[in-house]
């Protein structure tokens, strides 16, 4: 039947990294528009965001798989938000040692060492909800067909509720 296999951890890391990078650019563009009414929407980020987001979301994926049957959704999202703050602070502190930290929240009222700010708690929480419900869940459903020829359409798989049937 179908030879589809789940994506490897490296493949999922790559998808998570690209997703996080894109979201960072879009968030900074939207922030620039809301704060400065800049119609150019100049979204910015750093190449470090690929590693930061890819690794963080892969870790949250592991949390999701362990917590989904044990904790309600809102509790999981709170845990992911706390993880995000810890990860942002840790990676920011490390990057700051090399003068490479791309963010500085010093101008915010509730910042800590300019590396994290409580003003982003609601966006991080909403991002955690979207990350679990759409990004992680759908990425875990993706399959790789090792027997397919590149550029050639494969036969349509028999689907049941979005999953490949394996009669």
Automatic annotation (TrEMBL):
Keyword Transmembrane among record annotations: yes
Membrane protein topology class: Multi-pass membrane protein
InterPro entries the UniProt entry points to: CmpB_TMEM229 (IPR010540)
Gene Ontology CC entries for this record: membrane
Domain of life: Eukaryota
Transmembrane segments: 13-34, 46-65, 77-95, 115-136
Keywords from the UniProt entry: Membrane, Transmembrane, Transmembrane helix
Tagged with keyword Coiled coil: no
Pfam families assigned: ABC_trans_CmpB
Cell location: Membrane
UniProt-annotated stretches for the region Disordered: 148-167
Single GO BP term: macrophage activation
Family recorded in the similarity comment: Belongs to the TMEM229 family.
Protein name: Transmembrane protein 229B
The organism of origin for this protein: Dipodomys ordii (Ord's kangaroo rat)
């Amino acid at each position: 039947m179908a030879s589809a296999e789940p994506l490897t951890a490296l493949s999922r890391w790559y998808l998570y990294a690209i997703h996080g990078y894109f979201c960072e650019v879009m968030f900074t563009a939207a922030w620039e528009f809301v704060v400065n009414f800049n119609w150019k929407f100049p979204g910015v980020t750093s190449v470090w965001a690929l590693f930061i987001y890819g690794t963080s979301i892969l870790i949250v994926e592991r949390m999701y798989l362990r917590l989904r049957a044990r904790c309600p959704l809102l509790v999981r999202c709170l845990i992911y938000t706390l993880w995000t703050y810890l990860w942002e602070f840790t990676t920011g502190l490390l990057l700051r040692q090399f003068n490479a930290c791309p963010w500085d929240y010093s101008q915010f009222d509730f910042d800590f060492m300019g590396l994290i700010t409580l003003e982003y708690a609601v966006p991080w929480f909403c991002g955690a909800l979207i990350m679990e419900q759409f990004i992680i869940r759908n990425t875990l459903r993706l399959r790789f067909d090792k027997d397919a020829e590149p550029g050639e359409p494969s036969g349509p798989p028999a689907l049941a509720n979005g999953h490949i049937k394996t009669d």
